[in-house]
Design brief:
By secondary structure, the protein is α+β, with helices and mostly antiparallel strands. It is built from 7 helices and 10 strands.
């Protein structure tokens, strides 16, 4: 019996080791996985371009953003001047289904400067996303800020609108970034990786920090066996997150 138990134990160890074997990616695959595919996150709104607000009752309002109320950078309400009448109107996030704003030229200039100041961006990001003239999409979402606060309804910027069929990723205005290194007056190397986002899958919304990535990996991707085989959690890094969301979406549509 002891011998059989030993064989069984060894078999389990062997199976576990096999299951946890790392996938070795080629240089080209690693380069692709390191691409940052999310849109730039913006924290301001232009008062010179017409914003669009679509309420839950399907009524649409267009106007110039004047002010807003925020908590931890997330929008609780917004005030606009109607584009036709000039009437000032305030809307609470709980009443809005979708909203489309435009970034200010000042913030775009800051994003462009930040892009240029980090050599890592040249190979992982698209400069055009830092200076975009496109409307920035927001949507109504009920969230517990940093998974600690009482849940409230906010308008949150969707940063993966082109591939959010399965997982929606929202900008975290208070997110920190990893540090890089460099010399005075020269672009830095490394760093610049955003450490947190808000993420929705199904009916669940979480604040996802890089330190909790592994713990939430199965929740995010575990329902697709082919994906988990190609990109097991012990073979990928937080830096690959945007690629993984994109690839997971693509593999679920295949």
């Amino acid at each position: 019996m002891k011998f059989k138990a030993l064989i069984l134990a060894l078999s389990l160890v062997s199976a576990t080791s096999f299951a946890q074997e790392k996938v070795k990616y080629t240089k080209e695959e690693k380069k692709e996985m390191n691409q940052y595919l999310f849109n730039e996150g913006f924290n301001t709104a232009s008062q010179k371009k017409v914003s669009t607000i679509i309420l839950k009752d399907n009524n649409e309002h267009q106007g110039y953003a004047k002010s807003w109320v925020k908590q931890k950078g997330q929008i609780l309400s917004i005030t606009i001047d109607d584009a036709e009448t000039g009437k000032t109107m305030k809307f609470d996030a709980k009443d809005i289904a979708e909203m489309y704003l435009y970034a200010t030229e000042t913030e775009k200039s800051m994003k462009a400067s930040k892009f240029i100041s980090n050599m890592r961006n040249y190979s992982t990001k698209k400069y055009s996303k830092s200076v975009t003239d496109d409307a920035i999409p927001f949507e109504n979402q009920t969230v517990s800020l940093k998974n600690k606060k009482e849940s409230k309804t906010f308008l949150m910027q969707v940063i993966n609108p082109e591939f959010n069929e399965k997982i929606t990723v929202y900008h975290d205005p208070f997110a920190k970034e990893t540090a890089g290194f460099g010399f005075a007056g020269a672009p830095s190397f490394g760093g610049g990786v955003i450490k947190s986002y808000y993420v929705r899958k199904g009916d669940k919304v979480i604040w996802l920090h890089k330190d909790d990535f592994e713990d939430n990996y199965d929740f995010l991707f575990g329902d697709n066996a082919a994906f988990m085989k190609a990109y097991p959690k012990n073979s990928v890094e937080w830096d690959n997150f945007s690629f993984l969301v994109y690839k997971y979406t693509d593999m679920n549509e295949a």
